[in-house]
Every structure is written in structure tokens, then in C-alpha cells.
């Protein structure tokens, strides 16, 4: 073996050892959870957990950078002191700015008081009075050091003004010594002496939320491995290490390779990526020809679920779904994002509109609770009617203990939300419920009240959100992925589930097409039921058939001759959409009569309710009037 071959083998061994070290060093970092301020994470009750957390070694800033926050690479060393009037697109951006400033300056931020979701206070974590804490557990192997409280008044107050978060008050003076993170300071200093290749590698690690101190350890270890190499070979190996680490730890490269293979198998498969100024990948959006065609036909209603993320690096995974003419959930596309900021969501929404339908705008959009997503939709889809899903898991957690201590408050709250037919009824009922249970000081209930017009069903009675939120709070638009994907999952599993679901949807469509050639069963001899079976797709007919069946449970009372009728429930039935005993239906005479029910099912779902069907029986109407047949729910709609 010649000298060149031996040198090549030696270089490869060094590279493998270096990459292995990087992998081992970062294994704990890559699985760590990072703070994301969500719209429902506003309780001030948990701020003390950050303030009073213990530290066994290193400065408070070092602990903060490792556990709670890590700044964007471009922000390192460049953040200026806060000033009154500084503006931020979202509360998360304001929090990130102050966290970066704190890390750079030498203190730690905790969330302080907030007022009705319009004003937030961010404090130094020494702002409370001194607490005397003794560790009496003699069995512990190491003592805990308690962060000293000095009643420090350093803080900023941000207010929501005209859609932006503005710094309204600043107190920059601390009453205690500041201690910038030693590793952070060393990192800023070391950047001046890094080669371009080392900076590139450090940027890969920064974007993966590796703390500065750990980056320096990795670079020092790599430098020790490469000490005897010529400069050019050393830099080349650093770049190779960066590339090898990126492929091994982010899984994004594997995803892109898989997408390229899918494109070879199916030229209609499409994906696009977002990169930063250095050419590094930030986000991915993908879809296929079938989804594009479905959006062109059924793009009036779209849902975005932002509750999923990858188990490594906490990258948000966003399935985008809709509903076809059979009332079945369809996948329109997916996105894997760098973060949950408004600007990232804007890129996703703009890409979605551009690639799916040449800018075709949906009429109705439902999302999980996410302030940044709400802001992005307002900018990119201003004509769309946007709402949050009714409940989420965190909402239940926030209120569980509070309402459990107040008897039947939870049941009363559900009844109020499920059964209110008018805004006045809901708002008066809410006030009475809060007063009855002495709940006016509960922050989460205050937040729900302030945000009621973007989540409560009663405010969307006249908007087309088909079969999405039933009276029992089921979320049909989100159920497809929630039943098949973990809240935190591997990227490869997410892609695999996406492909499985697309195959399943295709197979179900084929089965539905075969079923359409058969005659459905009818429960009655009424002509209107036979007519409905011929008009609608099978799955929508089954929904209409249920309304026809439920109509037999009501009797009719005429309130105003030929104009207003009350439908009184004469017998109970399972799973009523609204658990109440009477409904009013108004009738406006014309060339074709117009029937308007309090429950507004036709506006919401595009099919008539049992109350109107009961009037049809009373009046001897044997066919559904054409004006009440929504073409979207018919077999011929896709072909048209």
C-alpha cells in the first residue's frame, strides 16, 4: 500500500471518528424539547417554575440557553437594548427578541403578568423577593444552588396595538450583577477566528439548536482530530463532517432523496423547498396531481393542523386536508417547517395557493389554535373565513382542575357551547355561568371569552364548515392524521403515513364508485327519501337519511300563519345535533319558498335539517327543492 492510500485511509478514519463524536455529543440535544409560546400557553401560574428552577453548575444564562431558549444564528451578538416603541409581528417574536437580549446581556427572562391577552410583561427571573430554601434531603449526592431573588425590577411590557406587539414600557436597570453566559461569550469571540468552513458547520449546529458551548466543544474535538492535516484537507473534512452530520441527524436529506424517487415513479408528484440566504434548507411543501385536482374541485374548505412535530429538532409537521363530495377527508398536501413563526406559515400558505390552484382562495379555513398561523392567514388569505377548532388537548388540561372543583361547571359549559343558537344566547349564558361558579378570575376562561368569536360554533352558524365540529366536539377535519400519526414522530414515519393515507383514500374512492352503482336501502316509503337517494352521493345521502329519520320525532306548531313554525320534539333520539326541545323555522313565500331554520344546518353543512324536512312532510313536498341541493354533494360534481 502506497503512502497516498494510507493517508486516505487515515483521513477517512478521522472523519468517521469526528462524525461519530458529533453524533454522540448532540444526541441529548436533538431529543430535547424547546419552548414554543402557543396561543393557549398563557397562564402565569407556571412562571415560578422557571424562576425558581435550580442550577447545579454554570451561569443562569447558560442554563437558559440549554433548557429554554436558543437564539437564531443571525441574531447572535447583534441585539440592541429594548426601547419603547419597538414593534414585533407576534408575541413569540417579542419574547424571542428579549430572550436573545437577556442571553447576550447576562440574565434570564420569565413571563410575568398578562392582561386579557392584550398586554404581557417579561421580567428578569430575580424579580421576586428572596426565598429561604433549605435542602434537608441528606441522601442527595449533590446540593442544589437556589437562584437568589433580589426583587429586580428589570422588565419590558408589550401591548397588542393594531395587530402588532409594541414595547410600551422598559426598565433596563438590574439590582444585581449580570453574568453573560461564558460559553456564549467565548462563542462570539471564537467566531472571529473561524474559517469559512468552520462557520458553515457551526451554522448547521446553531440551526439545530445546539448551545454555543457544545458547538465549541465539537469544533475543538474536531480540531484535535485534524491537527496534523494540511489546511485545505482539514477544511474539506470539516465541510464533509457538516454534511455527514446533517444527513445523519436531520433526516431532511433522506426525505428529499425519497421525494426525488417519488418524482421518478410519479412525474405528477411535486415538492418545493424554502432555503435561507446561505442555501440551507428551512421548510418543505409537497403534494401530488390528485391532490391538486381535488383542491381545484373541493378547495372551498381547507384545514391546517399545526399540532404535530418531528421528534428530532421539534420541526412542525402540517397536514393540509379538505373534504370531497362524499364527505370524506382528503389530503391536499403537507409541509415540514423550520418553526412556528408567522413568516414561516406565510411561506407555506403562499406556496400552497401558488402550487395548488394558481392562487385559488378557499372560502373557509379551520386551524388548530395558533396565533402566528392566524396572523399568516389574515395576510395571505384575507377573503377566507377563518376559525379555530373548538377545543384542543391543552385547553382541556388548562381548565380541568379548575372546573372539576366547581361541581357540574364542565357539563354546563359544554351544554352552553353545544346548544347556543344565537350570539346573544351564548354571551348571556356565558356571563351567567361565570358568575354562578365564581370563575371571573380564571385566566384561561378570560382568554376563551376574549377569543370567542374565532372558536365558538355560534359565531359560524352562517359559514360553510361541513361536518367539522359536531355538538360533541369531534374534529372530523383533523381526525385522519390524529388517528395515524403520533404528536411527535420521525420524519420517515410522517412521510410513510402520508403515502399510506393517499393509497387508502384512492382505494376508498374506488370502493365508493362501485357502491354508487347499487341501490341504497330506505327506512321509509316517503318519496322524498327516494329522491334524496338519487340526488346525493351515497355517504351524503346517509347523512340526509338520518335527518329524515330524526324529522319523525317532531310535531309542528304554527306560530304565524304561513310564515313561522315551531318544531317541538315529541320523542327523543340518539345523538341529536342540538340537545334542545324546540326549533323555529321561518318560511318566506316566493316563486320557490325559502325555509330558514334556527339551527342553520343548511348554511353550515350544505344539507337540510330534520326540522325543515318535518315541514316538507307537513306540506306534502315530495322532492328536495333544487335550491337546497348543493352540487358539491352530488355524484356529478367531480365530472362537471
From TrEMBL:
Subcellular location: Nucleus
Sorted UniProt keywords: Metal-binding, Nucleus, Zinc, Zinc-finger
PROSITE patterns to which the protein is assigned, alphabetical: ZF_SWIM
GO biological process: regulation of DNA-templated transcription
Region Disordered, annotated ranges: 30-65
Ranges of biased composition (kind: Acidic residues): 38-53
Biological role: Putative transcription activator involved in regulating light control of development.
Protein name: Protein FAR1-RELATED SEQUENCE
Amino acid at each position: 500500500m502506497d503512502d497516498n492510500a494510507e493517508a486516505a485511509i487515515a483521513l477517512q478514519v478521522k472523519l468517521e471518528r469526528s462524525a461519530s463524536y458529533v453524533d454522540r455529543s448532540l444526541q441529548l440535544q436533538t431529543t430535547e424539547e424547546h419552548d414554543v409560546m402557543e396561543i393557549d400557553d398563557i397562564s402565569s401560574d407556571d412562571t415560578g417554575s422557571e424562576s425558581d428552577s435550580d442550577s447545579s453548575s454554570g451561569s443562569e444564562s447558560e442554563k437558559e440557553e440549554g433548557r429554554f431558549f436558543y437564539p437564531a444564528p443571525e441574531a447572535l451578538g447583534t441585539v440592541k437594548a429594548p426601547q419603547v416603541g419597538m414593534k414585533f409581528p407576534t408575541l413569540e417574536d417579542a419574547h424571542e427578541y428579549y430572550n436573545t437580549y437577556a442571553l447576550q446581556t447576562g440574565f434570564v427572562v420569565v413571563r410575568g403578568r398578562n392582561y386579557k391577552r392584550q398586554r404581557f410583561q417579561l421580567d428578569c427571573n430575580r424579580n421576586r423577593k428572596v426565598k429561604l430554601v433549605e435542602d434537608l434531603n441528606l441522601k442527595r449526592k449533590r446540593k442544589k444552588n437556589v437562584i437568589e431573588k433580589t426583587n429586580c425590577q428589570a422588565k419590558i411590557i408589550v401591548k397588542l396595538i393594531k395587530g402588532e406587539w409594541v414595547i410600551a414600557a422598559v426598565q433596563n436597570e438590574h439590582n444585581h450583577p449580570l453574568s453573560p453566559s461564558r460559553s456564549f461569550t467565548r462563542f462570539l469571540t471564537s467566531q472571529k477566528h473561524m474559517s469559512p468552513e468552520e462557520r458553515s458547520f457551526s451554522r448547521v449546529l446553531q440551526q439545530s439548536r445546539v448551545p454555543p458551548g457544545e458547538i465549541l466543544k465539537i469544533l475543538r474535538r474536531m480540531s484535535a482530530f485534524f491537527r496534523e492535516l494540511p489546511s485545505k484537507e482539514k477544511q474539506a473534512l470539516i465541510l464533509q463532517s457538516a454534511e455527514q452530520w446533517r444527513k445523519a441527524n436531520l433526516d431532511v436529506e433522506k426525505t428529499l432523496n425519497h421525494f426525488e424517487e417519488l418524482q421518478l415513479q410519479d412525474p405528477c408528484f411535486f415538492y418545493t423547498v424554502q432555503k435561507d440566504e446561505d442555501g440551507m434548507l428551512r421548510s418543505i411543501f409537497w403534494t401530488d396531481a390528485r391532490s391538486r385536482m381535488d383542491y381545484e374541485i373541493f378547495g372551498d374548505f381547507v384545514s391546517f393542523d399545526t399540532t404535530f412535530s418531528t421528534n428530532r429538532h421539534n420541526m412542525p409537521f402540517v397536514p393540509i386536508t379538505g373534504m370531497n363530495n362524499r364527505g370524506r377527508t382528503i389530503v391536499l398536501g403537507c409541509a415540514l417547517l423550520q418553526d412556528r413563526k408567522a413568516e414561516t406559515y406565510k411561506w407555506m400558505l403562499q406556496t400552497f395557493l401558488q402550487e395548488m390552484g394558481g392562487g385559488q382562495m378557499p372560502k373557509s379555513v379551520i386551524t388548530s389554535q395558533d396565533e402566528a398561523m392566524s396572523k399568516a392567514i389574515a395576510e395571505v388569505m384575507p377573503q377566507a373565513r377563518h376559525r379555530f377548532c373548538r377545543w384542543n388537548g391543552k385547553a382541556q388540561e388548562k381548565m380541568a382542575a379548575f372546573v372539576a372543583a366547581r361541581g357540574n361547571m364542565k357539563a354546563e359549559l359544554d351544554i352552553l357551547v353545544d346548544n347556543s343558537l344565537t350570539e346573544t344566547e351564548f354571551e348571556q349564558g356565558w356571563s351567567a355561568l361565570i358568575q354562578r361558579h365564581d370563575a371571573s378570575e380564571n385566566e384561561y376562561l378570560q382568554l376563551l371569552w376574549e377569543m370567542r368569536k374565532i372558536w365558538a360554533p355560534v359565531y359560524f352558524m352562517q359559514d360553510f364548515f361541513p361536518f367539522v365540529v359536531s355538538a360533541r366536539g369531534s374534529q372530523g377535519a383533523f381526525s385522519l392524521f390524529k388517528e395515524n400519526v403520533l404528536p411527535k414522530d420521525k420524519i420517515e414515519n410522517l412521510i410513510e403515513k402520508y403515502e399510506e393515507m393517499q393509497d387508502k383514500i384512492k382505494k376508498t374512492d374506488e370502493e365508493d364508485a362501485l357502491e354508487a352503482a347499487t341501490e341504497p336501502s330506505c327506512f321509509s316509503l316517503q318519496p322524498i327519501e327516494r329522491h334524496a337517494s338519487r340526488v346525493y352521493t351515497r355517504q351524503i345521502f346517509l347523512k340526509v337519511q338520518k335527518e329524515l329519520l330524526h324529522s319523525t320525532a317532531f310535531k309542528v306548531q304554527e306560530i304565524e300563519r304561513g310564515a313561522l313554525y315551531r318544531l317541538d320534539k315529541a320523542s327523543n333520539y340518539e345523538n341529536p345535533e342540538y340537545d334542545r326541545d324546540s326549533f323555529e323555522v321561518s318560511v318566506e313565500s316566493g316563486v320557490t319558498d325559502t325555509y330558514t331554520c334556527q339551527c342553520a344546518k343548511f348554511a353550515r353543512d350544505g344539507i337540510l335539517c330534520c326540522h325543515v324536512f318535518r315541514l316538507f312532510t307537513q306540506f306534502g313536498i315530495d322532492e328536495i327543492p333544487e335550491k337546497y341541493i348543493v352540487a358539491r354533494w352530488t355524484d356529478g360534481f367531480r365530472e362537471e
